[in-house]
């Protein structure tokens, strides 16, 4: 059994892989344990690593550094890729408010961190590490550690110190955020006012109209659509008992019946345009669309052809060429109105109405091969990872600072990931990955990073916590987690009249705290906390990564 002992104890590349795998497996298993309905989940890997470091397990330092860095880069890039498509649109209307509140939480927390560091009792690396744990934000910790090594390439001790402080603050941050949610719920008397702060995408709504407005008699559809700024799609036209698919040059006559897809709030405006709205409900799930006319079918077609990725729907001229109508586009479970300016993406599902042969021909153009979606688009992922590392390594000189700032391996990849997710299709880069594939990559990267981070900090963890200085750290971490979130939460709820559900979701997003979000979800009967979490999370994450580096570079 001597070989087995060497395999686990003798530092080597193989031993590092083996130790990290065992830590990850043990942490993930323990993370399934729930106490009062709360679980640390994947973050238990961090504490499994701490325990391994505490009992004296040592690994190859170069391999450990590689594993941590690679895990962090994969995690933040795939995270950016996931939030990218909705990142910029989140700033519209209510999203601006939530993002500003999230940034206020970030700035308030950093103000506390800087104030404590300037007292001289604690180093800036200690306070930034403690703050990273209090806000449960490991990418921020990674960025700060990179900045610390920039200032002092031989400062490995400071990096370990930051990891140790983060380990102390992490569980306190989870508890602190849940404490804030409880307080805010009490302040609001437990009421969840259903006030929509974030606008949901307009869902397609189907209505039937009879033409009775003389102003549009004899006009074609192209001319009619130019009379209003309301967006709609005419799916079918009934005339003399016959159903047809209209084209842009189809002339509308008195008493024609039109099946129109629009957003529900626009129905009244469309009624004014066409004349009369029929009472039949066309939005029931059990409607057999293929039975409306034996010559026409309604079918969902998948976009799987790479050359269609990023192309505007109108530029394909499918209606004119094939006599079909695209009534809606489903993207990631959300139905979108099929406007000519909509850019198609790999994975979109188009609802197409037309003759069977025509619909099949359009399916060949768009691809409609579901197997293709299961194939990983690794080219875009590796291009993004490379660009992210390059961007993170570019030095940006700031007047008054002796050392230029770098986005680092946490900042660069997340920015590239967001940009790739938002604009990749416009450059015909296939950034589509299935939800399970993206989650797999994210979780793998984060688990690898947390295992290495815990192992690095574990050697001195318990002796640090169970002493007077350690208890003071715990108190500071609790204050860092509670004061900024409670202050901004009260302002948002009491003075800005932000709905409780949106408020706590925003606070969890600004703190990058999914464990607290899970708890928040149990206090309401809707998914508003998750929606506002997703809105505030990307910008708050980006702000923390950048500000953490600035604080280290300015105060170290």
Describe the protein's architecture and organization.
This protein is an alpha+beta fold and about 550 residues long. The chain folds into two domains: about 1-195 and about 380-555; about 205-370, Alpha-Beta Plaits, CATH 3.30.70.1450. The chain is built from 21 helices and nine strands. The protein has helices at about 1-10, 15-30, 45-55, 60-85, 95-120, 125-135, 140-150, 155-185, 220-225, 265-275, 320, 355-365, 370-375, 380-395, 410-425, 435-455, 460-465, 470-495, 500-510, 515-520, 530-555; strands spanning about 205-210, 235-240, 240-245, 255-265, 275, 295-300, 325-330, 335, 350-355. Strands 3-2-4-1-5 form a five-stranded antiparallel sheet. A four-stranded antiparallel sheet has the order 6-9-7-8. A hairpin with a 2-residue loop joins strand 2 (about 235-240) and strand 3. The longest helix has about 30 residues, at about 155-185. The radius of gyration is 28 Å and the shape is elongated. The protein starts with a helix and ends with a helix.
